[in-house]
Each structure stands twice: as C-alpha cells, then as structure tokens.
Design goal:
homodimer; alpha+beta; BirA Bifunctional Protein, domain 2; Rossmann fold; Translation Initiation Factor IF3; eleven-stranded mixed β-sheet; five-stranded mixed β-sheet; 35% helix
Chain lengths: 477, 477
C-alpha cells in the first residue's frame, strides 16, 4: 500500500476510483496503451465472480468450450449491422510466422461470427438443438478512451452462445439468462441491478433485442453490468445455421448471446466503496475475514499466536487471512485491510485470550459502532450470520442509495436537472430522434425500459407525443 | 458420433488420433489454419486438468493473475536468446482501431517479457520477494505443422512466473514445480512421466536450465508434457528486476517459469486410448460413470427408470450421466461411451431392479471379463473403490508399456534400432555435436537426463568419449 492518502470519493470520484484500484492492488497499467494487468487480488475477485456465474450456467444446462480468438476478416462482414458496429474497434493481425497473411485475422471483439460458422457445421437436425455453450475468454476492442476494468482494449468475459429450434425458445433463453445475471448481481455481489430492455440505438450490433442489467454507481452514473441478446435468425442466416425440423423441413435456427465481463469488478468497486477504500461483498471477497493478532511484547505474542493459529483452522470454511507481518503496526494493518475492503477483521489480544473472546470489526460500519465483542464459542456459526447480515446491509445500502437518486418526472426542465445527479424515469415515445436529442442536450442516454413495468398512457418527456412506457435515463460509463 | 469406424490404433496411429478427437467430439478444426475449437467434452477434460493443477498451485502458495496478451515488439528483443527462439513463430498485430500502429504488438507466445517488465515495477525490496504468480491464458505460436492439442497456433496453458531473492530459492521453486507436475501426471492422469533435465539444445529460449516431464505415447514416441525453467538472472537483467537486499545492496532477482498446456490432453489420449477409442483416467474424466437403462417395452421402462433416477441422486459425488436417449439402442450407447472413454458404465434392466443389483462394465477390460455384478447396497462406496482400482490399473498398464519399450544400450547400431520402436537409454558425453548427429541420423532427440540417476562412468554411445550420465533418446512429438 502506498503512503499517499486516497482522494475522497465525494470530492473526486474519478481519481478515487483510479487510485483505489492501484492502492488496493486490484490492477495496474500495462505497458501497452489501454491494457491492464489484473493483479492477484483483483483476479481472485474475478475468479469468485466466475465461480458464481459458472455454477449457475452449469445448473441451467450450459457447457463450456473454447473457440479461437482469431477470426477471418471476411466472417465479420457477413452480418451487416455487426461489422458496422465493430469494425472501428478491431485489432488486426497481418503478419504470421514472418509472412504477410493472405487474409488478415481479427482478434475477436466478440465471437458470434466464428461460433456461428461452427454451429452451421454441427447442427443438422432438430435433434442437435438446443446448443447451450459458454466460453470464458479474452476479447479486444480498440477503444480510444479507456478506464481500468470499465473499458480496456483487452478484457475478460464469458460469452454464451446458444442456438434453438424456435423463436420462443430463443426468447426464453435470453430472459432466463437475464434472470440469472440479476440473481448473481443481487445475491452474490449485493449490487441491486435493474433488468430491462435496451432501445434500438443502444442494442447489440446484430441483435433483434438486447436486455441489460443496469446498476447505479455511487456517483449516480449508470453502469451496464451484463447483457443478454436475442439475435433472432440474423446470425443463422449470415452463417447458414440450418436444421431439418420435426417435419423434415429445412429451417434457420434462432440464436442468442450474452455476457458479463471484468467490467463487473468496476461495478462492485463503485457500488460499495467509500472514502476508506473498497467494501467487498462477502460472497465474492477474496478474503472474507482477516485476523490481526494484537501484542506488544514477546510474552503477549506467545499467548496470542497459538489461539490465532487455532482459530485459523477452525474457520477453514471461510476465505481467511492471518496478517502476522512483524514490520508494520496493527494500526497500519487495519487501514490496509480497510482499503482492500475485507468485510470482517478479527482482533485478538492477550485480554481476549484470557476471556475466550474476540473483537470483530465490520468494514461497512466505521468506528466503535461496528465492533462486535464475541465469545469464541460457536464462532464459525456466529461469523456465518454476521457475513450474511453484512451482505444484506450492503444490498440495502446500495438499494436505498439508488432509489433516492431515481426520480420520476414528466417535465423536461426537471429532467435535465435530475440527470445531473441521478436517473430520470420518464415517458419516452420510442423515437430515436428524441433519444438522440436528449443525449445531445443532457449527456443522458436511455439505460433500459424495466421489464416489470405495466403498459400505461403518458407523453414523451421530450416531444410530448403519446408514450406507453417509462424508460430510465442517466449518464453512464 | 459418426458412423464410420475408427482406424485401428496399431495400424495407423496418426489417423486413429486425428479421427478419435473428432468422433469423440473433443475438438474440431477451426476455419483458421492450425487453430482448433475445443468442444465441450474436450474442454470439460481440460477444466478438470485445470482444477487439479490450480489446487496444487494454490496449496504451494501461488496466486493467479492476468497479464495482457499484447506485448510490444521491443520487449522481446531485450533477451537475446529469447527473441531468437521465438521470433520465427510470432503473430503480429499491426493495425488497431483502423490505424497502423507505431510499434507492432506481438500476440504473446509466452509472457516472460511483459511479466518481467511488471515485476521490475513491483519489486523494490527483498520484502517484495518471492513473487509466486501463475496465469491461465491463451498463447500463439505460428507453427507450420500443426496437430490437434499437440501443436496448434493458439493453445491454452498455465504459465507460472516467479521471482526470488537467491539462486538457491529459484532452483528450489523450479524443482518443486517439477515435482508438482509429476504428482499431477501420475496421480490424476495416470500418465507415468519421467522427470528430468533438458539438454542445452532442447532447453527453453532464455533459460539457464529446463526441466521436463516426459511421457511415452502408445506408438512409443515421447511427448514433453510439462516444463519448468530456471531462468537465472537472464530476464531480471533484461528487464531490470532489482531489489534492495537485507544488507541494503541492490541485487538482480532470480526468476523461474513453468507451464502445462492443452498438449496434456494429447498425452492422455495417446497414453491410454485403444482401438475402441479413448480411455479416460477417472480422476479427470468429464463423465466418470454413465448409466444406461435397459428395457424393451413401456412396462419394463416404468420399472427401470425410477431406480435409475434414484441411483443418479445417490451417486451425486461422481461425475455422472444418465443416457436416456430414446432414439438409439443400448448397443449404440455402449459403443458411443466406449469411444468417449467413460471409465465405468452401469447397466440396469428389469431383472436388476428385481434383484436389487446392477452391472458395471469397466472400459479398460473388454467383454465379459470386465463386468462386475454388484448389489445396490453401499453402491457409492463400491464405485469409489472400483474407480481407484481403475486408476491404478491404467497407471500400471502405461508404466508396463513404457518400461517394456525403454532399452539400455551402449552400442550405436543397437541404438538406431531401438529408437525405431522405443526409447534408448544411453550414455551421452553432453556434446551438442553428438546430439545433433544422432538426431540427424535417427530422428531421435535427447528427451531428458532423469533426476534420480547417480553419476557413473561410461562412454558416449555416439563418439565413445567418456560420459557421466545416461540420457533418454526418442522420437518425439
């Protein structure tokens, strides 16, 4: 941990974010512009995200595979919207083994095209469907303005690609994954996302419909945290994914794709962190509990350390770390682990050993108020409850923050103020011209039309024409 | 599964290998030359390899991270041997975001250089050492002759990169990992590898010493299945990885690197498979047990299926699959799962239900001899033992095969015959000229000098000069 103080979140959110990532050793800048090195602490967080998602994918019948990262340039050109969307962002390999390649190879920005090519080979009959494949992969998009975790040239993600017999099944899959993402965000990361549908302008290049989970960061900006796309028959037609149906007739398949990326690490940092640093959700935190032994002399150390070692064994079910560094003070350690967002800190001193007790400090409640004085008896059970409560509190805090910064409005002047420091929930006619004008005038974009909304009657906040649904508008990452 | 018959292993080993990979759906050819698509069954096998290795890395104090796949061309040039070794095999990105790049980017063939650059930033003091980082990554080497899993342009691996205070610690790490790899190969994959040291000609480009685990395939060719390199201070000097030691003096660090790749999937296929197809080691097999219900009519089905469902629940601790396909016969299913190398097949028919029994067919023992007739009581415990026995039998079979195809020799004429269908274990003076001449005349290369060998006195099998150690010579993949 470097000695300079972290900027205050409330004073300079952007610098707070950048410096926190470095100080907490989540990631570092790579020697290639726009690329990052994900350091062990950041990667351990991502591995826990992977585990939580991967388990959910497998429970719902999906399997993993690996497709090549090099895609012939001609493949991208087969789907018109897709190539238009991605061609400005491509990294291209033109030399291989010392020779100029006949056909340049694109480093995948996403894999619909190469996977579509393989599916057309693998799918012959309705019996071959559905195909429910996911891959964990690195992808490259040549972005001009980059930001650690949020937008880097190379990033890490999972991309699911499925193929189905009917339009209904594809839509069902798309929504099933959106639910899965929502469940993951809420119940693992304590990030209260809003699931909804993207506008035509904001949808994935080549999709019929894109769904999203949208989260509010602590600067009130929105972060698209995961997306699920119904691709209709667009890619099936471009790549000739056909099958003989139950009546022996040739049909195009219906496909979907969906992804969550290392961007979600950014969502966690900016949903929960505070002036002291990270606050990590306990179910994903690389270290859930840190134990700091407290002693001032060798005698006290001899008393404390055996109990600490014993406790470490007793708490094997948690992700635990004993900080037994000799060259720094307990106070330094407290600050260090607070910066790194470890949910619980256990302090044990000689007095605690005598009393068969210990002190638990909770990262999200500063000072004495957050301290719990516990008996060693049934300590694992007690900590399980405390971690669950921690998760619930974090989720509640983020939900309260979000809800207090979303404002329903039917007035464009009000709207313009709202989106300076929150989200506006307003009727929109669905017209791309209104959406573009709002973006131009306020920098706020449509985030999503939430799925749980009933149709109603209103007037577009911009043009006043009739509108059936409200949409969330916000500035976004 | 395609209907064409698999070529016999003994008649055309190479075609047997290629077709088996396709038929068993481990992998498929990608639309880019030399690249493969790892299909779900193959990827599940690789995931189990990953789990087994990753657990061992973490137990020995290593952590995972992720470094960028793009490396500035100038980085590679900083270590002379390294760039000479890798420059003919590079894939190079010259265009990004529509612009020609000022400095071309290499797609990593391995990551010593970019990781060395980061370590020089992270390491200041002896307190920052050791660094024990691993990454799971894709890498690219532009090979001319490619082969599924064994040599593909893009492949998947783990690469460990560590930095230490002393030469001794670096050597200890290098050997610790070699041990770890050996333990993994033997105890997870049932592949009886020989750990040893590589010759100067065969070592990694930029290493001081390379260690290897060498396995014999069923065509008697050798396969290098994992390597661990002591890099000395070569990369520390090239990338300025320096630290203040305990006496406050500036020192170069000592580094190591080590890797196991998807090539190991090839090792498993070629160590254990037979004319019927794959035989997968139970501890890594994606499916350990397949249950095939046997019935001829609806009445029998009603009797059998509830028991099958119940059994599936009872055997949750195993990786299990119920093959309840209605459109193929049990005989077809038997062949299918034999081809795919599932260790155990449970058959349950109406008679078994009545008798509270079941039949277990063991993949490695063909016909009736391999069949076990078991009671349903304590079935999970019985199967645990049966799978352990299976592993031991597979390891013994591969060891016997290997040992019967290794021949000690002190005569070059004999040597030349031996390496046509096995490995020669012969004294070699250590002179690169002899090694090169042998390779030229016989196609056999030095595989390794085994670590457990005592120094002795002999004469080089090629030149007759005095030699202290025997070395394994073989044709290799």
């Amino acid at each position: 941990m470097s000695e300079e103080k972290l900027p205050k979140q409330s004073e300079n959110f952007s610098e707070w974010y950048n410096q926190l990532i470095q100080k907490a050793e989540l990631a570092d800048y790579a020697p290639v512009r726009g690329c990052m090195v994900v350091r062990p602490y950041g990667w351990a967080l991502w591995e826990n995200i992977q585990k939580a998602l991967d388990g959910r994918f497998k429970e719902t019948g999906h399997v993993n595979a690996a497709f090549p990262m090099f895609i012939p340039m001609s493949f991208l050109e087969k789907e018109k919207e897709h190539v238009e969307g991605f061609s400005p962002e491509l990294a291209i390999v033109t030399i291989g083994g010392g020779q100029t390649l006949e056909e340049p190879l694109v480093v995948r920005p996403t894999s619909e095209t190469i996977i579509g090519h393989m599916y057309s080979k693998w799918v012959q009959s309705y019996r071959d469907l559905p195909i429910l494949i996911n891959q964990w992969a690195n992808v490259v998009r040549w972005e001009m303005r980059t930001r650690m975790f949020l937008r880097t040239l190379e990033f890490y993600w999972q991309e699911g690609h499925t193929a189905h017999e009917t339009a209904e099944e594809a839509e069902e899959e798309t929504l099933k994954i959106l639910d899965l993402y929502t469940d993951f965000a809420v119940n693992e990361a304590a990030v209260p996302v809003i699931p909804g549908i993207k506008s035509e302008a904001e949808k994935f290049a080549g999709a019929n419909r894109s769904y999203t989970i949208e989260a509010m960061m602590r600067d009130t900006k929105a972060l698209q945290s995961g997306t699920s796309h119904n691709l209709g028959q667009n890619f099936a037609k471009a790549f000739d994914i056909t099958y003989l149906d139950r009546n022996n007739e040739l049909q195009y398949a219906w496909t979907t794709s969906w992804g969550v990326s290392t961007r979600f690490v950014g969502a966690i940092i900016m949903s929960h962190g505070d002036d002291q640093g990270l606050i990590l959700p306990p179910r994903l935190a690389p270290i859930q509990i840190v134990i700091v032994p407290i002693y001032k002399n060798e005698e006290a150390k001899q008393k404390v350390m055996p109990v600490v070692k014993q406790l470490e064994k007793q708490l094997k079910q948690f992700r635990i770390k004993v900080d037994d560094r000799e060259n720094v003070t307990p106070g330094f350690k407290f600050n260090d682990w607070e910066l790194r967002g470890v949910p619980l800190r256990i302090e044990i001193g000689p007095r605690d050993v005598e009393n068969n007790s210990l002190v638990v400090a909770q990262r999200d409640i500063p000072g004495k108020e957050g301290k719990l004085f516990l008996s060693m008896d049934h300590i694992a059970d007690q900590l399980t409850t405390i971690l669950d409560d921690f998760h619930n509190r974090l989720l509640q805090r983020a939900t309260d923050f979000r809800d207090s910064h979303i404002h329903k409005t039917d007035n464009y002047e009000e709207f313009k103020n709202i989106v300076q420091q929150g989200w506006a929930y307003a009727y929109w006619c669905g017209n791309a011209a209104c959406e573009a004008a709002i973006k131009d005038e306020t920098k706020a974009t449509t985030r999503c039309r939430p799925l749980d909304q009933e149709k109603s009657e209103g007037k577009c906040v911009y043009c006043g024409e009739s509108a059936e649904y409200r949409t969330y508008f916000a500035k976004a990452y």
